[in-house]
């Protein structure tokens, strides 16, 4: 699969760019692209997971950019930053192996993150909304690695 660049001419370039980025939401196509770019054979489950993370990153980035259109200048730079950072994560996941995914980096304690954390959603006693929300919690990580729960 060869990926080529081309000149875009459009009355709405923003919409056109997102249309092209949605190409990366199709799992099987992106799985093939990951295998070609990274020269990996096998590891189907890992490649599938990485393709899913790329798709989630692109969806999240689009949401950040859309949200930035609806807020004041006070908040807009933060949403644009998160949108760019999330698109960058998709690109890293496409070009690098799974050791660059956030969940892998967290397991290796190489990514000190903030925000929501969760217990294992796959092992919920039931798939109810209550169980899902019951597993979400927030941790505050400080610079000296102490945790406030």
How would you portray this structure in words?
- By secondary structure, the chain is mostly helical.
- Helix content is 52%, strand content 8%.
- It has six helices and three strands, in the order H-H-H-H-H-E-H-E-E.
- It has a three-stranded antiparallel β-sheet with strand order 1-2-3.
- The protein is globular.
- The mean pLDDT is 77.
Biggest sheet descriptor:
3 strands, antiparallel
Helix content: 40-55%
Contiguous uncertain segments of 5+ residues: none
Mean pLDDT: 77
Report the radius of gyration as a whole number of Å: 18 Å
Portion in strands: 5-15%
- Enumerate the strands of the largest sheet in spatial order, edge to edge or round the barrel: 1-2-3
Q: Note the gap between the termini.
A: 47 Å
β-strand number = 3
Oligomer: single chain
Give the helix/strand class: mainly alpha
Task: Please provide the ordered H/E string of secondary-structure elements.
Answer: HHHHHEHEE
Count the DSSP helices. 6
> What characteristic shape results from the CA principal axes?
globular
Please indicate the count of domains.
Answer: 2
Quick tags:
3 strands, 8% strand, 149 residues, single chain, globular
């Amino acid at each position: 699969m060869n990926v080529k660049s081309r000149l875009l001419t459009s009355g709405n370039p923003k919409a056109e760019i997102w249309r092209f980025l949605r190409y990366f939401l199709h799992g099987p196509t992106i799985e093939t692209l990951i295998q070609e770019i990274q020269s990996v054979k096998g590891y189907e489950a890992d490649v599938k997971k990485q393709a899913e993370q790329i798709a989630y990153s692109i969806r999240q980035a689009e949401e950040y950019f859309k949200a930035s259109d609806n807020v004041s200048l006070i908040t807009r730079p933060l949403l644009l930053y998160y949108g760019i950072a999330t698109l960058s994560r998709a690109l890293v996941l496409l070009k690098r192996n799974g050791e660059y995914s956030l969940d892998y980096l967290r397991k290796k304690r190489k990514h000190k993150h903030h925000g929501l954390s969760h217990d294992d959603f796959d092992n919920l006693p039931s798939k109810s909304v209550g169980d899902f929300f019951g597993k979400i919690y927030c941790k505050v990580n400080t610079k000296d690695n102490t945790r406030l729960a």
